Amino acid sequence: MKKIVALLLAIAMMSTLLAGCAGAPANDQAGTDQPAAKEDETTTFGLTPLDERTTLSVGFFSGSAHGMPFYIADQMGFFDELNIDVEYESFIGGPAMMEASASWDICDVGGPGVLNGMKNYDIRMIGLCDNESNTAMFVRPDSDIAKDPKNPEVWKGKKIILNTGTTLQYMCASYLESIGASIDDVEIVSMDVTSGLTAFKAGEADAVCAWNAVAYTADDDGLVRVTDMGDMKLNNIAGLCATKDALDNKSQLIETAWMVYYLTWEWCNQSEENMAKAVELYVESCEDEGVVSSESICQRALEEFNCPTVKESYEQMTAKEPDRSGKGAEVLKSTNMLLETLDFFITLGSYTEQDRQTILDKGLVDSSVAEKCAEILKASGHMA
Predict the structure, then answer these.
(1) Which of 195, 237, 232, 243 is nearest to 63 (CA)?
(2) Does the CA dihedral 347-351-355-360 come out positive or negative?
(3) What is the rounded distance in angstroms from the CA atom of residue 303 to the CA atom of residue 301?
């Protein structure tokens, strides 16, 4: 579907170009498939198109609301008018996305995926794109857990399906700890969220963890929602990340993508018509990605989507506050939010204090993109 839409957009653009140039003499761009956009063309957000046609490779989180600004901007032509083509590398989990980081320039991913990328692949977080409350755990309505979910004894020896190394593990372990149990009391069955829900409905395991559209599907299927990140009032941030290579060699492309991402979500919220279009495109994306969904589910997911405005994102990436560890050093506000997730994983032994210090020392929460974009956005009137 994405390739078909992109082809139709390209054909439409070429048809307009040929009609406008009928009878004109040949020029140096004759024979090129997609000429560079002119600098004086009016664009939706008033941004200047790139000088040459350029491809942006997006690490795309299938079925997630925080992937939608990329997809909506692509399908609405916001990238096209800026001389940018979009290619998608789709994933259903953060660790796999980070392992394949050589294949994308920018991505949207949950906090544990951000941390995995920082530790193993030198990935930079350049913005926050969500604080996911709809990361949840479900059981069957006739189970002993459903009758007494806060009793630590009923969890002992139970099997829980979740995607390990992700926010699902963070949520599950946090909940068990909050009721006096431990993740060591249960058996974890590692599976991606879509396959996990299918397996659970077929009778496997005693509980299943899911997020985004898949979590709403579990609700609609009549499963009992035991808890979620919103209930536990935990920070569960998702980040916009970029590879070091992209930041070093494609800085204008990354900066433009950063601005388009946040401005697109602001566009979605400008009118009911725009939001209805966003829901329509979310359903389309889920269908393309093989994620079970519906209009109702996608609407709920976008209502819960906690994406900052462009101004809020800039402030999160530049404002400083004391390190949540209490050691006195100042860190970026966005860094503190990510460290909440990291500090929990340190208690599980998944990371070390040295990993934490490396993130701080190397500046892997990188404010440079937000700072450069703020200059452009202030000049264009998007920021005061």
Answers:
(1) 195
(2) negative
(3) 5
Query: What is the per-residue pLDDT across 153-176, written as a single tens digit (0 to 9) for each?
Result: 999 999 999 998 888 998 999 999
How many Å apart are CA 308 and CA 357, to the nearest integer? 27
Q: b/e string for 42-59 if b means 16 or more Cβ within 10 A?
A: ebebebbbbeebbebbbb
Would the pTM count as exceeding 0.90? no
Element (H, E) at 60: strand 54-61
3 state SS of 311: helix
> Which residues are within 8 A (CB) of 142 and not within 5 positions of it... i.e. 6 or more apart?
none
pLDDT tens for residues 207-261? 999 988 899 999 999 999 999 999 999 888 999 999 999 999 999 999 999 999 9
Burial call 12-27: b when 16+ CB within 10 Å, e when fewer: ebeeeeeeeeeeeeee
pLDDT tens readout for residues 52-65: 999 999 999 999 99
Q: How many CB atoms lie within 10 A of CB 303?
A: 11
Q: Are 109 and 62 in contact (CB under 8 A)?
A: no
Domains of the chain: 2-14+34-131+237-379 (3.40.190.10), 135-232 (3.40.190.10)
Q: How many CB atoms lie within 10 A of CB 292?
A: 17
Give the CB-side neighbour count of residue 298, counting CA atoms within 13 A: 22
